[in-house]
Methionine--tRNA ligase
Amino acid sequence: MVGPVRRSGTPHWFANAPDGSLGSLLMSHVLAAVAWPYANGPRHIGHVSGFGVPSDVFARYMRMAGHDVLMVSGTDEHGTPIQVQADADGVTPRELADRYNRVIVEDLHGLGLSYDLFTRTTTRNHYAVVQELFEGMYRNGYIVPKTTMGAISPSTGRTLPDRYIEGTCPICGYDSARGDQCDNCGNQLDPIDLINPKSRINGETPKFVETEHFFLDLPALAEVLRQWLDTREGWRPNVLRFSRNLLDDLQPRAITRDLEWGVPIPLDGWRDRPDKRIYVWFDAVIGYLSASIEWARRSGDPDAWRKYWSADGAGKDAQSYYFMGKDNIVFHSVIWPALLSGYSGEGSRDGEPGELGRLNLPTEVVSSEYLTMEGRKFSSSRKVVIYVRDFLERYDADALRYFIAAAGPESNDTDFTWAEFLRRNNDELVAGWGNLVNRCVSMAAKNFGVIPPVDPAGLTEADEALLAVARTGFTTVGDLIGRHRQKQAIGEAMKVVAEANRYLSEQAPWKLKDEADKPRMGTILHVALQVISDANTLLTPFLPHSAQQVHELLGGTGVHAPMPVIEQVDDLDGGPAYPVLTGDYTVGARWESVSIEAGRPLAAPKPVFRKLDPSIVDEELARLAD
Ligand SMILES: [Zn+2]
């Protein structure tokens, strides 16, 4: 359950007054923390259905409802897979990360995802924040050195980095698992766990010798994690259950690797070692904090991040929501809260908070299930895939956003099929919503040229009933988005659309052609246009691009749904420049019914959505390999 006061029932800041206005609203600081896409290739629509669109719908709604939202993320750029691919492509890991960072930034921009800051993990700011957390936890005793078995090449005697060791996965039996990870089952491994380990350089069997690494002492944080999980309310039950189960068997976890690409270990004797780096998953989760700090430093108020993070003072009532696919739950419901607790000095070893102070644990981990494609798992190598970029070249962003919200993997694995995409686009977006807008705006423009006034005879019961349905939508739809039930929320918004279509068929304003009937025709169109304006606001978090167009068709000016921009920025601490996504989201519509003004000129009608030809289904299926 969301809300400044953790009780069951609807938090009072959701409640709209009966007239659809915001009423007395309690503003909160809300962190929307969005999973970091890995920069080893372009992202496909399965990825953005898990982390991208749901987080943006939530952030947009919360801003419209008057909250102070900070939405941050970036590309995750360290680790073995990027190093391996860079080696294969004959470029440096940084060059590879640069390439896909740019691709991903452009794709997320194309989808209209309203990040306050979308950055990357290769900034100097990120390195400094990661090292600060590492040092703080080390001082408090939650990071401990441990002697483990590391691989060396018997012929040269040198350390063999994880990525150069290959063997059979002990968990799933996949025969080309790498030393740190199995790409088939996704489990993290240690080289010594591999069955029949071989060097990828020369095929020899590596020799395992004692070497030192650092471990996160998760057992020392288990109790504080359990207490925290016990206070969570309103989480999706599978996420909470899964997270609790993980606590039953917590082991110390290695957070450094034999690898050259990553954040250096910030301890004397380790800082300058070229062969040991902080493990990618440890650095990536800290990105939520480092990106918030980077955003604050760029905003001109370097302490502004504290409003969302400080457990004492400015951020003590802040809320934080983490959005991801289900394969990432462990990092957000166990590892990340463990790091935050250890840094704050709150595990069984106690300790003192580091210089950033005590930090907030997540309010909620909002995890999506998986999207499949035509009944199969997305797979870039097997070409069962459509990348965001290719999708946006052929279709509109809102068509995809609509599909994800209405039919995405919110709480069950769901299948994307082109036939269903076509049906949803043509029957629901075009015939349901787009047509309603078009018919009413065209009829009003043709007969009145402006938004017609309400006839002095007043409103009928049917008029009042429809207006009430739309106003009620602000409470129901807003409440559902706030509780991460977006599928139901967009369903409720589309019910308003369906009611308006039914009203129009029943009232049949096109039959009121006589001059004497024209005032009533004007009233019907006024009511319909008011409801279109309300429905458009209800749909704005889901369909921001078309919401702006509908706003303009109704004669509105200015920004209705603010959009992100790509900016090339300098690294704040002297590193290379890079592109970020950011934007000014203080402008735009509020979550309330705004009365349309009679007499306001209407724009020339034009279709808001594109009807798709059924032939696209066969064309797209032909692009998938069989
Ligand atoms: Zn495996």
